Amino acid sequence: MRFDIPIAKTSEFWESLKKGKFVTTKCAKCGTVSFPPQADCPKCLSGEFTWVQLDEEATLLTFTQVQMTPASFAGEKPYTIAIGEFSGGVRVLAWLERAARENVKPGMKLRIEARTAGENPYYVFVPV
Ligand SMILES: [Zn+2]
Q1: In the chain, what percentage of residues exceed pLDDT 90?
Q2: What's the predicted TM-score (pTM) here?
């Protein structure tokens, strides 16, 4: 996962994730909620923002089941990448875990689960 903004401005995201909270930025001026966190509003370009917690649940919009794993994931089983939509239209791309492939359907309810790999927090979707 890569962010094109200074790390200091997004550290709140990673710190919250370590505590199991999924937060992102909301523009203080026009109220646009962005994901990934944006220090500058993509809509009105304001640099003022607050952190808001996203809903517990998202709705599966679309997904891709990856059969041919790239070399960097050799040894991984086929996996599913999902785009979930939270209320307000915020869309998040993440791996979908613990979902049998034949049960994955657009419209299903997902929630974000925080994980850590060593020191590094990351997140996945799991079915509700
Ligand atoms: Zn704005």
Answers
A1: 56
A2: 0.81
